[in-house]
Description:
Helix content is about 35%, strand content about 20%. Strands 1, 5, 6, 7, 8, 9, 10, 11 and 12 form a 9-stranded mixed β-sheet that branches. It has a 3-stranded antiparallel β-sheet with strand order 2-3-4. A hairpin with a 3-residue loop joins strand 2 and strand 3. Helix 2 packs across helix 8.
Amino acid sequence: MFTMKLRKVSAAAATALVLALTATACGGDDGGDSNGSGSGGGDKIKIGIKYDQPGLGLKEPDGSFSGFDVDVATYVAKELGYEPNQIEWVETKSADRENALARGDVKMIAATYSITDERKQKVDFAGPYLLAHQDLLVKKDSDITKGTDLNGKKLCSVVGSTSAQNVADKIAPKAQLSERGGYSECLAALQNGQVDALTTDDSILAGYAAQDQYKGQFKLAGLKLSNENYGIGVKKGDTATVDKINKALEKMVSDDSWQKAVDKNFGPANYKNEQAPKIGQIVK
């Protein structure tokens, strides 16, 4: 009798163990949706940024990240319920931003992402959170002082960016376009004389010009060739996230965190920023 009872207890214990293991396997990890569809807690959120833009989105040698876009995205993520250690930063190059959102690789992108009508067909935007202007970065002794001086010159920009095409279409149709995979590659080409100018937004160029290893080598031409309204991109149709991000951006401006981030990241380059744009107000 005692032996039979012992066998029953052992069988019950074994069954309980199997059920516990099964529940653990079905429950998965505590991380939740790594793309950030949750509301914080144990979840993580993937945010697309640039890795090679000093002052905006830069991966430091120690593996940390710095820049204005990083600070804005960190603030927004906090308002969405995510602590800094719950953010997974994902490199998103200009040519792959729309695809990264469509594939669900990231929840949102803050990567000097100018809001354009063409891009709005593929993604939704929150913001804008910064108004920048297209400019030129040239060597300190360059004789390029205006856009038309680029005719016959070699002009560098990155694949997927609209900047070089803007110049070729509207300002210097005889400029020789030279595309590279990233801005750091364009900067190297400018430094060694393979190209005559690098064009993109003044905020990006100011970040490069302010780096210690390049101080005194380059200058901004000081041209306002276009208006670039930086927005935070999200997957097309995700209006709920757009609304949440817009509220976070409004709060960032009102509590002065926005201006502090501008001063911190662009101040060393003596960058003259525009005032914080109003949400939904696109400057053409």
